[in-house]
Amino acid sequence: MDRGFLFGDGIYEVFPAYDRMIIGLDSHLNRLQDGLDAINIKNPHSKDEWKNLIDKIISFDSINKNQAVYLQISRGSDENRKHTYEELKPTVYIQSSAIKQRDKSSLLNGMSAITREDIRWLKSDTKATSLLANTLYAQEAKNNDAEETILYRNGIITEASTSNVFIAKNNCIYTHPKGPIILPGITREKTILCAKANHMSVEETPFTTRQLMEADEVWITSSTREIIPITTIDGIQISNGCAGPIWSTLYDEYQSLKS
Ligand code: PDD
Fold first, then answer.
1. Which of 222, 250, 254, 257 to mutate to test the pocket of ligand 1 (most atoms within 8 A of CB)?
2. Where residue 137 sits, what CATH number does that domain have?
3. Which of 89, 127, 196, 258 is catalytic?
4. Judging by beta carbons within 10 Å of its beta carbon (0-12, 13-18, 19+), is residue 26 exposed, middle or buried?
5. pTM for the whole thing?
């Protein structure tokens, strides 16, 4: 009778831990709070309690120091299945799994992506567990031997099925601004900070599918994948077909966040 199971009525977070230290712990916990507020679930724990729980789950795995901690809070269990709800006791589910990191050298030729129309709801900034559209898009990428499905709405690139999207053109970096149609990725935020630390210009401004195809560089960002260059989209080569120098600088800068 858990509403997480019956309705996908819950919020989740994925925390990346390197050497048992989480990158952006507070940012992830803040986004968790925003998600819970957005769907009116009372946060069952304080920030410090969450930090202790997360540390504990990370410590259980004595072998893997790099782990992705998955945390889900559903609205809880009711007595019967009905769409409406009273106040329930939220259910907390937490697990961790090893992060399989990819070497920089394995990324130099970049990965491929496909594009699809973004038909998701207009609350895609909420990290809700109801991810049917995202899972179908991710599976379509897999079926096409692609790394990701990049999404567009009215000709504008929004994000991808499980990551945010960046392009670089003439030494300027572009990514979709925050708002209801993209998840405000923590890796997106960190990537922007890495770029600014390297005196690169960043525009959080919409760009079109055409700009995507004509970009000098394209990459995607997420907590578990970090920054992955995309060099083929819908079977068409982007720029010279290799991961670019801006990606390379940002990749290195992002690695330095782990120490
Ligand atoms: N996915 N956009 C979407 C739709 C996502 O699902 C994710 C993350 C991101 C990137 O967010 P962040 O940088 O905070 O990980 C963007 C996670 C990893 C997942 O669903 O497992």
1. 222
2. 3.20.10.10
3. 127
4. exposed
5. 0.98
